[in-house]
Write the structure tokens for this entry.
Amino acid sequence: MRVTKNYWFRTISIILVGFVAIYLLFKIAIIVGSPKPFVPKDFIDARGRGAVIAEEIVASSEASIANLSVISQADEKGNYEDGLNLVSKEIQDNETARAKAYNLSNQLEIMANNLNSIKPEDASRIGLEAVLNESQIVQRLLNYNADVRKLLDVLLSRFSNSGSVPNAKEKVKELISSMNDEAKAVNDLNNKYKDLMSRFDKLTK
């Protein structure tokens, strides 16, 4: 029996159609079997509150760096009265920033506790990565606040003793450098968190 080209063409066409049908059925099964995107309200609410607090923390860090620059100028000029007033204000702002750090950690804890309920699983995984990333802001801020306290102690001592404190200038430069690093890390971490949550949103729409 002679096999014509038309026969092979029909045979190959039938096979290809079969493969396409199988592929489409497979894709439909995946879509049907995939869980509908779901994000708990507690997670959404905590995320919203945390985002506001994080932005306040970033702004607070930037304002603190600017204020510390003014304090350093007062120190260099020997303007100890103004320096003492600026230090007192910075101490108060520092306590406010510390409270915000703990508040942020509370919101992140709520988000973490709701990760298991998030669908799809990829979104839950990215959510976890985002929470872990943002939690580093809390640690960085605590490090920053610790440096602020050390710096303010050094400056306060200088202002109270008319500048006569051994190695004070070196300590001030070292602490300000460390604080700038921590402030930059806070900003970078918050930007990375935003990127992760943008990916999270695409998966949960």
